[in-house]
C-alpha cells in the first residue's frame, strides 16, 4: 500500500488563533497513523506513506501580511518570515509523529521548489522517492516559493502538493483530510462523487475560501485533483478513527474521479 495523505491546516490548528495547535487532534492523528503502520506490518504488507500538511494558523496569517492586491511585497523579509512560521509548524507536527516512533522527515518546499513559466511545479521528487524506499515518511508542507511566471512569489499549497505527487508517484490512495465531511451541494448534502458529469454543478456550490486563508479552500482542493485526473477522497479528519480508516481504504467522503 502506498498512500499520500494531506492533513488540512484546519484540523491541526485553530485557524482563528495565530500559532495555535489543536494538540488533541494532532495526537490522535499521530496515534491513528501509527496504528495504520502497525496494521500493514501485521499483514506483512509494505506500507509507504507521504504526509502533506497545510499552513494552518502559522503560514496563512504571516503570508497575508505580505500580500497586497494579489502580489507579495517586501519579500526580503516576507520570504524568511513565512518560511520560519512554516518551519515552526512543521517541527511541531514532525516531533509529535516522531514521539510515536513514526519515521517522519521534513521536506521544505521553499528551499528547492518553484512554479515555472507555465505555472507548472518544478519539484524534483528523487529524494522523496528514495526516502520512501528506505522506509522513511516524508512530511511536506505548504510554503512560500518563487513564481517564475509572474516574477513574484506564490504559495505552494498542500493542495498543490497532493495532486502533483499523486500524478507523479501514482499512489494507491490519495487522501484529503479536511474539517468537513466532504464537498457539500447547494442543499448542504455531501456529494458522493465528483466527475465529468457533475463538475459544472459542483463548481456552483464551491464557496471561496475562509477569509483568513491565502490559498483557495475547497475550490483549489477539488479543481487541482479534478484537472490532473487524480482519484482522491476528501473526508473529515476531525472525526476520530477517520484517519486510520482512510489509510485502510475505508472512509466516507467525496470521491473525485
Ligand atoms: O494551507 C498554505 O498551505 P495550504 C501554506 O495547504 C502557507 O493551502 C505558507 C500559507
Automatic annotation (TrEMBL):
Biological role stated in the UniProt entry: Catalyzes the formation of isopentenyl diphosphate (IPP), the building block of all isoprenoids.
Quaternary structure note: Homodimer.
GO aspect biological process, one term: terpenoid biosynthetic process
Source taxon at top rank: Archaea
Keyword Protein transport set for record: no
Segments traversing the membrane: none
Gene Ontology, cellular component aspect: cytosol
Residues carrying the site annotation Transition state stabilizer: 15
Its EC number(s): 2.7.4.26
Catalytic activity: isopentenyl phosphate + ATP = isopentenyl diphosphate + ADP
Protein residues bound to substrate: 55, 60, 158
Annotated residues for binding of ATP: 6-10, 56, 179, 217, 221
Keyword tags: ATP-binding, Isoprene biosynthesis, Kinase, Nucleotide-binding, Transferase
Aspartate/glutamate/uridylate kinase domain segment(s): 1-232
InterPro entries reported in the protein's UniProt record: AceGlu_kinase-like_sf, Asp/Glu/Uridylate_kinase, Fosfomycin_R_FomA-type
Catalytic EC class: transferase
Family membership noted in the UniProt record: Belongs to the isopentenyl phosphate kinase family.
One Gene Ontology MF term: ATP binding
Protein name according to UniProt: Isopentenyl phosphate kinase
